[in-house]
Design a protein that fits this description.
It is globular, with a radius of gyration of 24 Å. With 448 residues, it is of the alpha/beta class. It has 2 domains: 108 residues, no CATH class; 302 residues, Alpha-Beta Barrel (TIM Barrel). Strands 6, 7, 8, 9, 10, 11, 12, 13 and 14 form a 9-stranded parallel sheet that branches. Strand 10, helix 11 and strand 11 form a beta-alpha-beta unit. 44% of the residues lie in helices and 17% in strands. The chain binds iron/sulfur cluster. Iron/sulfur cluster binds next to loops.
Length: 448
């Protein structure tokens, strides 16, 4: 008699989560052990070497090599040897083989990523296989639910002059604004009523805005709604970050934009990369959940620079990551430059999922500025987070980092994107996956 399929489905889901942080051979050992324990199925995994095979993991044999018996091919050279199917029925066998093929491909590819050169090679390799593996990895680390964050662009005033950004202070074509606390609260109330449980307060890097302003907004949000608050207001003194943390802020998004110090210096005139990294360090010390990332396809950026950005992001031990293509913005020195490549941006997201593992990864809104369904495609190759723009239209039209279509990020449109993919929408705050895992494992949440 076949076991209930639902039991087996449950096993697949649990095993997927279990193998997520493991290496290639550890994953296969985990699967084999679990199959034996729960279903009395005895399987081995081996690598084919001509007419012989080399044992990788499994329940029965611990011999280093064995003569090639009957087997099921999982990939070109990895095979499954079944000594006993135990309690598994035909339908379950089929599902198991499909699942194992995905696990083997994912873990093999993950194993290949070790440094900038290997990331660069994967970025230029077989796209279909990469995107499929990243989607499988996303399900393993994050499950099927997508987190929708509600962004409120509360001010477009900026004291910097980044060459690519429409908010740069020298752009005199932009009418500047800062929303009042009341306007921000009204906007948040509508978002909360529609299910938003994370608000992202975003602005330019405004040197003249006192930290007390944002602190009062954070306090009011925390008092009125049971939500997480993410800030994205640029590089500030550590004192400002401390004031906001004490007011109740949970997370901070500060993209490093590019990990190349020379490129950064050219792009963000007047700023240096090290200041941004020091700011990230201050935020880490204050125990914010940290998000960062880079822009893909900036003028004079090489593929090696892009690969370096992904490896660099890994070193930051992020809770959230965001990689999006460069979009030329009118009234900036880069207005006539070529935009970033959407296909490359999707491959970057995919590699980031494989390398960074248990982080939230955003489907950047800049993708939709360059290609229809850009964000939808990102959610199919590693991303698990998407931003809905809650900013009232009269202000969001003035938040011109780059040109974007009216309504393309409305909550209605974002919900459609997620539903179209058949994913569910997460109902919780969507805090750091890493911190959750650390707590579950009984480890301290602070990073060392
Ligand atoms: S990228 Fe940020 S800091 Fe630079 S001009 Fe734009 S808003 Fe200001």
């Amino acid at each position: 008699m076949e076991r209930e399929t639902s039991d087996f489905e449950k096993w697949l889901k649990e095993t997927l989560k279990e193998v997520a942080p493991s290496s290639f051979s550890e994953s296969l050992a985990t699967v084999a052990h679990s199959l034996y324990r729960l279903f009395s199925a005895r399987v081995r995994f081996a690598e084919m070497l001509g007419r012989r095979c080399s044992f990788i993991a499994g329940e029965v044999s611990d011999e280093p090599t064995c003569t090639l018996p009957d087997y099921i091919q999982l990939t070109e050279n990895i095979i499954l040897i079944v000594d006993a199917w135990g309690k598994l029925g035909n339908e379950e066998k089929e599902k198991l083989i499909k699942f194992l093929k995905e696990v083997v491909k994912w873990k093999r590819l993950q194993q290949e990523i070790s440094d900038v050169a290997s990331v660069e090679k994967i970025l230029s390799g077989d796209e279909d296989s990469l995107l499929r593996c990243a989607d499988f990895a996303r399900r393993a680390y994050c499950g099927d639910a997508v987190h929708i964050r509600g962004i409120i662009e509360y001010s477009n005033i900026c004291s910097r002059n980044c060459l690519y950004c429409g908010l740069r202070k020298d752009n005199k074509n932009l009418k500047r604004y800062t929303m009042t606390v009341e306007e921000i609260l009204d906007t948040a109330a509508q978002g909360f009523d529609n299910g938003i449980r994370t608000f992202v307060l975003q602005s330019g890097e405004n040197d003249s805005e006192p930290p007390e302003f944002l602190a009062s907004v954070i306090k009011a949000l925390k008092k009125n709604f049971d939500v997480a608050v993410t800030l994205s207001a640029g590089v500030k003194r550590a004192e400002a970050y401390r004031i906001w943390k004490e007011a109740g802020a949970d997370r901070y998004l500060l993209k490093f934009e590019t990990s190349s110090p020379s490129l950064f210096k050219r792009l963000c005139s007047g700023s240096v990369l090290q200041n941004r990294l020091s700011a990230l360090e201050s935020l880490r010390q204050l125990e914010y959940q940290i998000g960062s990332g880079s822009i893909i396809g900036l003028p004079n950026q090489t593929l090696s620079d892009v690969a370096q950005d992904i490896v660099f992001a890994k070193g930051l031990d992020l809770d959230m990551a965001a990689f999006g293509p460069f979009v030329p913005s009118p009234h900036t020195p880069f207005a006539k430059c070529h935009p970033g490549d959407v296909a490359l941006s999707l491959r970057v997201i995919a590699v980031a999922r494989l390398l960074l593992g248990d982080v939230h990864i955003a489907a950047a809104s800049s993708l939709d500025a360059l290609a229809p369904n850009g964000r939808q495609r990102a959610l199919s190759c590693g991303a698990n987070v998407i931003m809905a723009n809650l900013t009232p239209e009269s202000y969001s039209n003035l938040y011109g980092i780059y040109p974007r279509q009216n309504g393309s990020s409305s909550l209605k449109r974002i919900t459609e994107i997620v539903s179209h993919l058949g994913y569910s929408i997460a109902s919780d705050r969507g805090d750091s996956i890493k911190q959750f895992r650390r707590r579950k494992n009984g480890k301290v949440t602070q990073r060392s």
